[in-house]
Specification:
The chain has 544 residues and is mainly alpha-helical. The chain has helices spanning 4-20, 33-38, 68-81, 85-111, 114-126, 130-134, 137-157, 159-162, 167-176, 185-196, 203-228, 241-260, 285-289, 296-318, 320-331, 355-370, 377-403, 408-418, 423-435, 439-452, 457-469, 473-486, 491-503, 507-523, 527-540, and strands at residues 270-272, 275-276. It has two domains: 4-403, no CATH class; 408-540, Tetratricopeptide repeat domain (Serine Threonine Protein Phosphatase 5, Tetratricopeptide repeat, Alpha Horseshoe). α4 (85-111) packs parallel to α7 (137-157). It starts with a helix and ends with a helix.
C-alpha cells in the first residue's frame, strides 16, 4: 500500500474491530472446544507430532476430520496457553485482524478504490456472523486456514505484476491442510481468471495456471483417504443424495438471509421444520422424507438462486466484478454443500471466506449510491449514512453475540431458545446442568427433550443418570428399561440397571443384567470396557 490513506483506513478498521470484539477475552471453552482442545490426548504431547500427519486419530465424536496443520496449531496453542481460554482468544482475534488486512488488500486491488476497499473490509470485519468463526475457539483455529487462503489469493492476483508464481502455491497448501473449507481454493482462483484476468487469454492458458492448485487439492483428498480410509464424515440423509441436496438448497437460502439480516444467530439453525444445521439423528424423519422440489421453501430458494444466477450472467461482461463477487460467495460454500457427506448442513462459520464476496458486492452498491448525481452531495451523504447505520447495527449485534459464548450454560440456553425443536440441544443443555450441579433443571430439560423425541434410547439413558443423582431409583430403573426397549443392544443401560438391582440386593437380576452388558460389550468389540466394567462391578458389589 503506497498511500497514507490506506494505512489510515487500516488503522480505523483494526481499532473498530478490536473494540467490537473486546468482550471475548473472558469467554470460556464451549461445545467442540472440549473435543479439540481440553480432552484431545493427541495434542498434549510433542511425541505425537508425526501422528498429526499419519496414523491420525480424530477426537472422540469427530470421525472423518483430517486437518494436520490445524492439529499442529491446536498443539502449539495448548502448549502455550494450557487450559486458559484468554490466550486462545488473543490468537483468534489476531487471526481476524490479519485477515482484515488481506481482505482490504484484495478489495483494493480488485476495485481500484480505497473507499470501496474500506467499506467492504469494514462490513467483513464487523458482520455478526463472524462471531462463530472468531469467538468460538475451535472454529477460530480453522480460520487460520482461511487466512492462508486470503494470502494465497492476494499473491495470486498480484503474481503477474510482481512475478511471483510459487509463493501462492505454498500458502494454498498451508490453507488446504489447515481447513477443509479452503479446498474450494482452485475453483475460486479459476473463477477469478474467468471473470477478471486481464486480456483475452485462452481457456487452456487459464487452466494451466490453476492446474497446480487442483493437483494440490487432489493430493489432500488422497492423503485423507490414505490416513482415514474415507473422505466423508457420514452418509447422505436416509442414503438419498436427492433429499440431502434439497436440505442444502434451503440452507443456501438461509445463508443469504443471515448475510442481509443477521438477527437470529445460533449454532443450530432451523433450516426448515424438523431439519437443523447438524445432527441428522435429531431430525424429524417424516420432515426429511416428505421433502420435494415443489415445497414452498425449496421453490423459493430455487427462484432466488435463479435470479442471482441471472444477474451473474447479465453482468458478466458489463460489470464482471459484480459477477465475481456473487460467484465467490457460492463457490466458497462448495466444500460444505454435502456433495461429499459431512453431516453438517449449515454453519455461520462457513461464511467466513464467502463474506469477502458478499461484502465487496455490498460496498460496490454503496459506492454507486454515493456517486454524485442530480442530488449532488446529498447522494454521497445518504450512502455514507447508510454505511454508518449498518456498521452501528453490526458492531452492536456482534458485541452482544460475543456474550452468547460466555460459558456453556449461556451458550446452550440460547441454542435451546433459538431452536426449540431440537431434542439434542436440550439433551446437551441437561448434561451441562448436571455437570454444574443443577440437577432439577437437568431432569426437567431432559423430560422436555423426550417429549420431542420419544424413540431415542440415549435420552432415556441420560435421564436415568439424572434420576440416580436425585436418588430417585425407581424412576431411574424405569428410564433404563425404556432405553433397553428402544435399543436392545445397549450395554451401558444393562450395566447401570445391574448396579441398581445389586443395590437392592436382587442378586439374580443383577447377575443377569451384568452378564448381558458384558456380552454386548464383547460383541461390539469393547473388550476393555467389558474387563474394566466387570472388575469395577465385582469390587463395588462384592456379594454379586
Amino acid at each position: 500500500m503506497k498511500f497514507a490513506k490506506d494505512y489510515s483506513n487500516l488503522a480505523v478498521l483494526l481499532v473498530l474491530t478490536f473494540l467490537t470484539f473486546s468482550n471475548i477475552f473472558h469467554n470460556q471453552f464451549v461445545m467442540d472446544d472440549f473435543d479439540f482442545i481440553v480432552d484431545w490426548p493427541l495434542i498434549q504431547s510433542w511425541a505425537n507430532l508425526p501422528r498429526f500427519f499419519v496414523s491420525y486419530i480424530p477426537p472422540d465424536g469427530q470421525a472423518g476430520v483430517y486437518s494436520p496443520l490445524k492439529t499442529l496449531f491446536h498443539a502449539l496453542s495448548y502448549h502455550c496457553f494450557g487450559l486458559k481460554p484468554f490466550g486462545y482468544h488473543v490468537v483468534s482475534l489476531l487471526v481476524h485482524l490479519i485477515s482484515i488486512i488481506f481482505v482490504y488488500r484484495i478489495c483494493l486491488f480488485l476495485a481500484k478504490s480505497s473507499w470501496i476497499a474500506f467499506a467492504a473490509s469494514l462490513l467483513f470485519a464487523l458482520h455478526p456472523v463472524q462471531v462463530e468463526a472468531i469467538t468460538y475457539l475451535t472454529a477460530s483455529v480453522d480460520m487460520i486456514g482461511v487466512l492462508f487462503l486470503f494470502i494465497a489469493f492476494d499473491l495470486y492476483i498480484r503474481g503477474d505484476e510482481k512475478g511471483r508464481r510459487r509463493l501462492p502455491l505454498v500458502f494454498a497448501a498451508l490453507a488446504i491442510f489447515t481447513h477443509e473449507l479452503t479446498i474450494a481454493l482452485p475453483v475460486l482462483f479459476l473463477w477469478y481468471d474467468v471473470c477478471l484476468r486481464p486480456g483475452q487469454e485462452k481457456w487452456l492458458t487459464k487452466a494451466k495456471r490453476v492446474l497446480p492448485y487442483f493437483i494440490l487439492a487432489l493430493f489432500y483428498v488422497l492423503a485423507k483417504f490414505a490416513v482415514l480410509g474415507s473422505i466423508s464424515r457420514g452418509g447422505y440423509l436416509y442414503e438419498s443424495f436427492y433429499l440431502t441436496m434439497l436440505v442444502i438448497v434451503k440452507a443456501l437460502l438461509e445463508y443469504i438471509w443471515i448475510c442481509f439480516v443477521p438477527v437470529t444467530l445460533t449454532v443450530n439453525h432451523i433450516i426448515s421444520d424438523g431439519i437443523f444445521s447438524y445432527g441428522p439423528e435429531d431430525f424429524d424423519r417424516a420432515a426429511v422424507l416428505s421433502q420435494s422440489i415443489l415445497d414452498t421453501q425449496v421453490f423459493a430458494a430455487v427462484i432466488v438462486l435463479g435470479i442471482i444466477g441471472y444477474f451473474m450472467v447479465r453482468y458478466f461482461k458489463e460489470k464482471p466484478l459484480v459477477s465475481f463477487c456473487l460467484g465467490w460467495f457460492f463457490l466458497s460454500l462448495l466444500p460444505v454443500s454435502n456433495i461429499v457427506p459431512s453431516g453438517i448442513y449449515f454453519g455461520e462459520r462457513y461464511l467466513y471466506p464467502g463474506l469477502l464476496g458478499f461484502c465487496l458486492w455490498a460496498a460496490l452498491w454503496l459506492e454507486k449510491i454515493c456517486q454524485p448525481g442530480k442530488a449532488g452531495g446529498r447522494s454521497r451523504r445518504a450512502g455514507l449514512g447508510i454505511l454508518l447505520l449498518i456498521i452501528a447495527f453490526y458492531s452492536g449485534r456482534t458485541y452482544l453475540r460475543n456474550q452468547d459464548w460466555k460459558n456453556e450454560i449461556t451458550f446452550y440456553e440460547l441454542a435451546v431458545r433459538e431452536n426449540p425443536q431440537s431434542a439434542f440441544m436440550r439433551r446437551d443443555l441437561a448434561i451441562i446442568y448436571l455437570s454444574q450441579g443443577q440437577v432439577p433443571q437437568a431432569a426437567k430439560t431432559l423430560e422436555q427433550a423426550i417429549l420431542l423425541k420419544r424413540d431415542d434410547a440415549d435420552l432415556f439413558f441420560t435421564l436415568a443418570n439424572v434420576y440416580l443423582t436425585l436418588t430417585e431409583y425407581e424412576e431411574a430403573k424405569a428410564a433404563l428399561q425404556e432405553a433397553i426397549r428402544l435399543q436392545p443392544e445397549f450395554p451401558e443401560a444393562y450395566y447401570n440397571l445391574a448396579g441398581l438391582y445389586a443395590q437392592e440386593e436382587k442378586r439374580q437380576e443383577a447377575r443377569t443384567h451384568l452378564n448381558k452388558a458384558l456380552e454386548l460389550y464383547r460383541r461390539q468389540g469393547k473388550f476393555l470396557e467389558a474387563y474394566e466394567g466387570n472388575q469395577a462391578f465385582r469390587s463395588y458389589f462384592s456379594s454379586i
